[in-house]
User: Fold Carbohydrate ABC transporter ATP-binding protein, CUT1 family from Cognatishimia maritima.
Amino acid sequence: MTAIELRKATKKYPGFTLGPIDLSIEQGEFFGIFGPPSSGKTSILKLILGLLSQDEGQVILSGVDCKNLEVSQRGISMVFQNLALFPHMTGRENIIFPLAERGAPEEEITNRLDSVSEVLHVSHILHKNPSQMSGGERQRIALGRALADDSRAILLDEPISALDARLRENMRVELKRLQRTNNQTFVYVSHDEEEVMAISDRVAVMIDGQIAQAGEPDVVYNYPNSIRVAEVIGTPPMNFFTGTFSADGRYFECDKLTKPIPLARKVRPGEPGTLGVRPEDIHEDAGDDSHEISISSVEPLGSHTIINAELGEQLTKIRAEGRIIKPGDHAGRVTFDQRRLHLFDKDGIRLPEGGE
Ligand SMILES: Nc1ncnc2c1ncn2[C@@H]1O[C@H](COP(=O)(O)OP(=O)(O)OP(=O)(O)O)[C@@H](O)[C@H]1O
Assistant:
């Protein structure tokens, strides 16, 4: 069943237009929204919650058009980026507030408080006021308030960004577990692409107020539908080379490389385009099709190494699992994994897969 649906929803601010957005989120789905700053992520959540009203289009919750429904009638909780805890209440009072407001029985309140406190590791700070908590503790209390309430969906806007890296990783796992157990619908916004990709069943990539692509995380990663999406998914990001597909369509002739790059299929003979290759798909290799690189720096990161190199005249990032190139090396040879190339037309739109 569809829990949240946006149909051509549009919101116009001076100088910025969100939408039109078409989006469908299923009951029990963990849906991630990722995008650069100011791309419209928070505004989408506010439309769903009812804090903003759309200028055009519809917001439909469980099949019901929400046009005339107030925030409190929508049955949705939101954890804001800037928290919004009640300063005069303790952590405990903040968490149980929505339950107490709707007159939930004492036993239910206690059970829910206990279960979210355990998951969020906040039992020891329930007696404190927000002013006596750290930023991360306040964030966990705010999460607790949303999770304890029996909402049909929870909207989370950068909910764990104030936590340190290790705690963030744990919380990610716990959030996912909690969502699965309760079969709740989560809409999770973050500018941290890895976080969104790791936690979500499906993701939407927002660029300039539009959903540029939506789908399962590995599909978006492996088949970005445009250069703009490819640029924002992946760390380090994809490398791009502009040039022309050869007259027989079997090679990509890059403006800045001396050798053409062989393609696994025939592509757009004679047309201009862009070839994208992810850092992990460039391999240290001295074979016939290899290119010489001039190494600027090598970052050994334990499990892998990032090599910053000049390929032709272009700065290129290479992720190496092996140890052929070492810190202090100045040159090497690499090839591109032919099966993992991303090909885009002159307008930056991904070329269809397949062909001879
Ligand atoms: N109430 C408002 N009035 C006018 N402009 C607004 C309003 N709210 C948001 N905007 C503008 O809309 C754009 C999108 O904002 P929004 O907060 O939705 O983006 P975001 O992707 O969540 O950004 P961030 O990652 O920085 O939080 C921004 O340019 C912002 O300045």
